[in-house]
Amino acid sequence: MTHSALARYQRQMIFPGLGEAGQQRLLAAAAVVIGCGATGTALSNQLARMGVGRLRIVDRDFIELNNLQRQILFDQDDIDANLPKAEAAARKLRAVNRDIEVEGIVADVNAGNVIDLIRGATVVLDGTDNFSTRYLLNDACVKLGIAWVYTGVIASYGMTATFVPDGAAAALPGERTATGCLRCLLGEMPPPGASPSCDTAGVIGPGVALITAVSAAEAMKLMTGRGELNPGLLHMDVWDHEYEILGSGVRRSDCKTCARHEYEFLDAQVGVVSSSLCGRNAVQVQTVGAGPLDLASLARRLESVARSVRRNDYLIKAEIDGYQWTIFPDNRAIIKGTADEDAARSLYARYIGG
Question: Is 313 exposed, middle or buried (0-12, 13-18, 19+ CB in 10 A)?
């Protein structure tokens, strides 16, 4: 980049741990953020401002009023415009930094698309709110040899861990040593309800800010080849001032993913899938592996059964049978007003199909 363009990062390059050479590596790097809620918006904001050359933001959801308390890239105008989170975040960050490439993708990350979404990334960052997607990301990153950073926040505390698969250790700048993976650290995926959610424990913005700052710094270290990486599972509580490392990044010799290369989350079957959304009294239903929806045609069809139908290029919003529906082109519907996945699947089949 030109000297005038680099002036944006002057204070950052003064830092001895980075310098101009480190900044140039950031500008040459590509980062993918999966999920654009509280952690995803904070991570994306940091990455864009530090000058990551290519930034892709992937999220399945739309913006609601209760998001604004902690999801820092959104405002009430975005809600009025019915913008999906990924698109609203991308627009904000393009305004922040015109010298980098920012792409917003409105999609649910699943076994059918995750490889294409993260392929070519220098680093992947977790901004999700569920372990099924995290274990899927773990499979994909290990298979492709891409470093990734896990981030989770609930109530006033959060956790982060940094993973460097074999292929990533060789491809990253600097001298990095391969680590274990998420499965090495946590074992089998926790069952639903095994851990608290934002519905049961809440979440505060300062907790998000604290843990995402550490995760963004880890991503910066990975992309530049500078600094010491987090050696395990770092737990931090902004309310009770607790800071400790709970686990190590050592690879387990019996790990199904990084030792035996069994990718059971990547090998999931296609079909109708559903998941209850954290704290929303809502269920997401999707037909995985099907072609895209024609929103215009579907909106016309729903007018005969819906109390109201609103459509833009990104989604349909409708009230049907007393439920609030948000429908996306990728065969995905968020049905608000129930936490019953069977009931939501039945509604989806009745009005959308599949």
Answer: exposed
Q: What backbone torsions phi and psi does residue 319 show, to the nearest 5 degrees?
A: -110, 115
pLDDT(110) > 80 = yes
Helices (H), the chain: 3-6, 10-14, 19-28, 38-50, 76-80, 85-96, 114-118, 131-144, 166-171, 182-186, 198-201, 205-224, 295-302, 341-351
Question: Out of 3.40.50.720, 2.102.30.10, 3.40.190.10, 3.30.565.10, which CATH number does the structure's domain 3-248 have?
Answer: 3.40.50.720
C-alpha dihedral (160, 215, 253, 186), degrees to nearest 10: 20
Q: How does pLDDT run across 253-264, given as a tens digit for each residue?
A: 999 999 999 998
**CB environment 179-199: b (16+ within 10 A), e (fewer):** bbbbbbbbeebeeeeeeebbe
Structural domain boundaries in the chain: 3-248, 271-351
| This prediction's pTM | 0.85
Give the residue ranges of DSSP H helices in 232-336.
Answer: 295-302
User: Coil, strand, or helix at residue 264?
Assistant: coil
Element containing residue 235 per DSSP (H, E): strand 232-237
DSSP secondary structure letters along 104-125? EEE----TTTHHHHHTT-SEEE
Query: What pLDDT does 185 receive?
Result: 93
* Domain 271-351 bears CATH identifier 3.40.50.1970: no
Determine whether 258 is an active site residue: no
Average pLDDT over residues 123-137: 92
d(CA 236, CA 57): 25
Q: Active site residue: 184, 198, 255, 258, which one?
A: 198
Strands 271-277 and 282-288: antiparallel
Show Cβ contacts of residue 304 under 8 Å, excluding neighbours closer than 6 positions.
Answer: none
Summarize the confidence of residues 37-44 as an average pLDDT: 97
Is residue 235 predicted with pLDDT exceeding 90? yes
Give the tens place of pLDDT for each residue, 306-325. Answer: 989 999 999 999 999 999 99
By the 8 A CB rule, do 26 and 8 touch?
A: no
